[in-house]
Amino acid sequence: MDTSYPNTQLFINGHWKDAVAKKTIDVINPATESVIGQMAHARKEDLDEALEAANLSFQKWKNVNSFDRYKILRKAAEIIRQRSNEIARIMTIEHGKPIGESLAEVNLGADITDWLAEEARRAYGRLIPSRATDVYQMVVKEPVGPVAGFSPWNFPINQAVRKIGGAVAAGCSIIIKGPEETPASCAELVRAYADAGVPEGVINLVFGIPSEISEYLIPHPVIRKISFTGSTAVGKLLASMAGLHMKLVTMELGGHAPAIIFDDANVENAVQMIANNKYRNAGQVCVSPTRFLVHESLYEKFVEGFVKVSESQVVGDGLDPKTTMGPLAHDRRLDAMERFVSDAVDKGAKIKTGGKRKGNKGYFFEPTVLTDVPIDAKMMNEEPFGPVAPIAPFRSFDEVVEEANRLPYGLAAFAFTNSAKTAEKISASIESGIVSVNQPWMPVVEVPFGGIKDSGYGKELGTEGLEAYMQSKFITQKSSI
Ligand code: NAD
């Protein structure tokens, strides 16, 4: 397969350009650890250009009617589909995920663009009956203004498109700080929007030192809304900065999803679904199942099945069509996995399969199953964000709910049961933004996505995904004076 890889420039005011200071950052292929290209490294002067462009273009874009915005975005979706194979190839080279997963992600990027384009045509306000006969009371929706978006490396397109598509569809402009680990596929998304006719300045793409960019953009008076996807720790930092400056925020943060298998579940089906889901994107997914809680009567069977699925994963370069799990996206994740496992083992956990780095080139880590992991082990408390699966038994409904809700996170939760009553009870009891029963749920465009508690606030996708970039204005109008 073609292994060529493009360098990535900044996209500011409709032009692809190097950083003013000509600085660059290396990009590494996580399957080989070799440097494959460079991206431009934005500093303050580049951000100033982007801010000016976002400010000026917003004044025009907000007045483009929603039908015309819709037509441009639909065209962007078509362009993404036409280029999907090439974009997926680039994504796999820079990120490591299997080529089939990259292709699905690129196509989902097109679907999300379509959905947001359509929703923009239905950004209804409302008429509220007035107390006087000649007075109208209206609520209208307006775009919030220039947005600063921060999107991570785990889904280089799927995370960025929610922010870019939402903002552009609503009539906002956006400066997006793309993922430094995986810049080129995110840049291809922006290229597709630009080629479809999004006017210059409406989308600006920058890369650099994340804290330097957020500390400059968030307080800046031009920026009216912040949208961040990433870890809870960074999210709290950015949300507090935004709060100081009274900026609107959407925060899509970490999770630690319980996957609960009740005693009446079909254990063979459950293990197939949830174990394969665990290894999607090498577990680097905020809604990945991360604490497997299995009724004691099914425990042994479940562990045995999970180990089998884990050992059947084909770990390798994502460009190889046989690969089912690629490397971790960067070396920090590899270090983190080693730390999670050794901490658990030191505290008494048993490794049922995996547990270590695979090979010594590339950030590969073995699909790993652990039992007897004590509750104070790091991996039972911090988001693992990798291919490790701690499995623990439980006895009663109340006990498992207590464990599921123990952590400050509240993003996703999974449950398997053949009882409608248990399904209803567990959905109601779990503190989580998303509850999936009897299925290995993956995000789709029609439904809202987002967490509660330390997993953040605000939603992406669904009707809420557009709302996030709009604000309500109340207008009351008397027909004459
Ligand atoms: P990290 O906390 O250094 O970075 C996570 C993301 O936040 C990256 O995209 C990074 O560019 C960005 N970021 C970091 N500091 C920032 C700042 N001061 N201002 C603006 N953006 C900033 O961690 P990492 O090693 O890249 O990833 C590990 C952790 O991040 C994981 O454990 C996981 O919890 C979290 N994460 C979550 C998601 C998600 O989908 N919610 C995605 C990626 C990473």
List keywords for this structure.
481 residues; alpha/beta; Aldehyde Dehydrogenase, Chain A, domain 1; Aldehyde Dehydrogenase, Chain A, domain 2; 2 domains; 5-stranded parallel β-sheet; binds nicotinamide-adenine-dinucleotide
Number of strands: 19
Mean pLDDT: 97
Can you give the helix content as a percent range?
25-40%
CATH topology of the largest domain: Aldehyde Dehydrogenase, Chain A, domain 1
Low-confidence stretches: none
> Which class best fits the helix and strand makeup?
alpha/beta
* CATH superfamily grouping of the largest domain: Aldehyde Dehydrogenase, Chain A, domain 1
**Tally of alpha and pi helices:** 14
Strand content: 15-25%
**Radius of gyration, rounded?**
23 Å
The strands making up the biggest β-sheet line up spatially as 14-15-16-13-12-17-18
The CATH class label of the largest domain is: Alpha Beta
Cα distance spanning the termini? 73 Å
Ligand kinds: nicotinamide-adenine-dinucleotide
CATH architecture of the largest domain, by name, is 3-Layer(aba) Sandwich
Number of domains: 2
Largest sheet: 7 strands, mixed
Descriptive report:
- There is one protein chain.
- By secondary structure, the protein is α/β, with parallel strands linked by helices.
- It has two domains: 10-253 and 455-474, 3-Layer(aba) Sandwich (Aldehyde Dehydrogenase, Chain A, domain 1); 257-443, Aldehyde Dehydrogenase, Chain A, domain 2 (3-Layer(aba) Sandwich).
- The chain is built from 14 helices and 19 strands.
- The strands form five sheets. A seven-stranded mixed sheet has the order 14-15-16-13-12-17-18, with helices on both faces.
- Helix 2 (66-82) packs antiparallel against helix 4 (99-120) and helix 2 runs antiparallel to helix 5.
- The longest helix has 22 residues, at 99-120.
- The mean pLDDT is 97.
- The site of nicotinamide-adenine-dinucleotide (NAD) has 20 residues, from helix 7 and helix 8.
- Residues 150, 152-154, 179, 210-211, 214, 229-231, 234, 238, 252-254, 286, 332, 383, 385 line the site of nicotinamide-adenine-dinucleotide (NAD).
